[in-house]
């Protein structure tokens, strides 16, 4: 038997290793999209003369959310949109606006928790910083720039067991989760000084100089990465990340050990599924749908932000797409004379469209089997998981499941799949005596159209290091590729008014 391919998993490692923050994740997506021929457009511009059937486009908001789409050449106003939504953010520690701290000879950096992380996993890791910086340039122009410091500069040390023999590891997130950045004496020596100079002059609060708010050497390191002067560094949004890279693991190289699997794995699979569905030069020739991927920021904190899934980002994109006229070769005289009722095009598009909410799922845990419902125990490398909840914490229903199953059956054979055709699927339902998480699925279903929740199975969700199946990457990419290729056909076959 041929050895299964790890190409998709290895390509994903490159994506996640280059994406320590939502801003980097969007940039990683942009690089792949532009290589595949997608054109950058802006929300603030008119799309009337820009967007054409057969075209491929992407736009960003806050540079931490991105929407990419390809318009079929048979498109006309009111036609369906096949959508996949995922998110770019993960639980992390974020540098506070005033982060400069010093105690007992140590330099420390004040951080804020973002999302619901397993914070104990952040102790004793080799940490660094990444994110975006507002850089002051010529003529007063302030530019968004990305920073990723590759070497470890921070660490959150645990207290020796000899000094605190607690059975369960507990700590105060405000006072005991501050990383150390080095020794005060070493920093004074670097600067050629023997004692700290306290700057009491100048404005305080938000208007204080950046060197009063943050350790100067951290600003110097960021400036060096950017190739600018430290005085050019303005406000920034910087997160901590683990410098240990994502890797293939397991006895037979069947696992992935990585940070941010939730939800960069689904972000990667969505983008790759879209790109692969367009590999053929004639992919859009007979397609009357639009193929769309939306990667949102802020899912881990509820999505109710300007660039979250609960914003107007995707609804406004769909509204603008719904009235794009057909290409001249596919139009007719009556359409050219605006005989089509474009006032209802948006509602027709919503009624015929479908959204896959792609967010990682729970694999069965061999040490905690009692936490899982007996007949719904997803396993790694056995396919993407359809997530179901009777109380609509997930948006999946029977019609959506049928449509997805048909897309899975039409998918290209995965290299790890023993079936003759298609890719495997699994199902997950939480126990009745367990709480259930949620996703962007229900909120977007209420705003847009029919929705289904799914994700690849993983362990250690919200830890600094998570685990998933290496071959499930390929399963999901092939599933999403098939969904985009066949949605125009399947939408007509699975119809519930």
UniProtKB/TrEMBL annotation:
Organismal lineage: Eukaryota, Fungi, Dikarya, Ascomycota, Pezizomycotina
Protein name per its UniProtKB record: aspartyl aminopeptidase
Keyword Cell inner membrane assigned: no
CDD domains: M18_DAP (cd05658)
Domain of life of the native organism: Eukaryota
Cofactor(s) recorded in Swiss-Prot or TrEMBL: Zn(2+)
Molecular function GO terms recorded: metalloaminopeptidase activity; zinc ion binding
Family: Belongs to the peptidase M18 family.
GO cellular component: fungal-type vacuole
Keywords: Aminopeptidase, Hydrolase, Metal-binding, Metalloprotease, Protease, Zinc
Biological process annotations from GO: proteolysis
Keyword Protease: yes
NCBIfam families: PRK02813.1 (NF002759)
Catalytic activity: Release of an N-terminal aspartate or glutamate from a peptide, with a preference for aspartate
EC number annotated for this UniProt entry: 3.4.11.21
Organism: Lojkania enalia
């Amino acid at each position: 038997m041929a050895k299964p391919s790890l190409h998709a998993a290895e390509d994903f490692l490159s994506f996640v290793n280059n994406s320590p923050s939502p801003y980097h994740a969007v940039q990683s997506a942009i690089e792949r999209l532009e290589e595949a021929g997608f054109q950058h457009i802006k929300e603030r511009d008119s799309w009337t003369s820009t967007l054409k059937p057969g075209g491929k486009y992407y736009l960003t908001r806050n540079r931490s959310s991105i929407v990419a789409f390809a318009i079929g050449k048979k498109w006309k106003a009111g036609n369906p949109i096949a959508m996949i939504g995922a998110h770019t953010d993960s639980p992390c520690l974020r540098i506070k606006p005033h982060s400069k701290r010093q105690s007992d000879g140590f330099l420390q950096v004040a951080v804020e928790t973002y999302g619901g992380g397993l914070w104990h996993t952040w102790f004793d890791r080799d940490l660094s910083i990444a994110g975006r910086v507002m850089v002051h340039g010529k003529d007063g122009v302030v530019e968004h720039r990305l920073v990723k410091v590759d070497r470890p500069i921070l660490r959150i040390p645990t207290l020796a067991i000899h000094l605190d023999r607690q059975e369960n590891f507990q700590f105060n997130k405000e006072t005991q989760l501050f990383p150390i950045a080095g020794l005060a004496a070493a920093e004074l020596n670097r600067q050629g000084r023997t004692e700290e100079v306290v700057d009491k002059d100048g404005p305080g609060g938000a208007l204080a100089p950046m060197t009063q708010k943050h350790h100067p050497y951290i600003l110097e390191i960021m400036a060096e990465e950017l190739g600018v002067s430290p005085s050019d560094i303005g406000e920034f949004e910087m997160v901590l990340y683990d410098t240990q890279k994502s890797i293939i693991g397991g006895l037979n190289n069947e696992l992935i050990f990585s940070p941010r699997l939730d939800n960069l794995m689904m972000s990667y699979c969505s983008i790759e599924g879209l790109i692969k569905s367009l590999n053929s030069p004639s992919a859009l020739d007979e397609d009357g749908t639009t193929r769309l991927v939306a990667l949102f920021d802020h899912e881990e904190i509820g999505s109710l932000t300007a660039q979250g899934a609960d914003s107007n980002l995707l609804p406004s994109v769909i509204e603008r797409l719904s009235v794009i006229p057909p290409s001249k070769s596919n139009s007719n005289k009556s359409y050219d004379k605006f005989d089509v009722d474009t006032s209802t095009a948006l509602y027709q598009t919503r009624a015929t469209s479908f959204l896959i909410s792609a967010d990682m799922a729970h694999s069965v845990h061999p040490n905690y089997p009692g936490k899982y419902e007996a007949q719904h125990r997803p396993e790694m490398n056995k396919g993407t998981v359809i997530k179901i909840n009777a109380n609509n914490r997930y948006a999946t229903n029977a019609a959506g499941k049928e449509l997805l199953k048909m897309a899975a059956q039409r998918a290209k054979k995965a290299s790890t799949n023993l079936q003759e055709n298609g890719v495997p699927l699994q199902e997950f339902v939480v126990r009745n005596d367990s709480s259930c998480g949620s996703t962007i699925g229900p909120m977007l279903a209420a705003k847009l159209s029919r929705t289904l929740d799914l994700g690849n199975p993983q362990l250690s969700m919200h830890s600094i290091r998570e685990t998933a199946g290496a071959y499930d990457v390929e399963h999901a990419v092939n599933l999403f590729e098939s969904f985009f290729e066949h949605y125009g056909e399947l939408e007509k076959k699975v119809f519930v008014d």
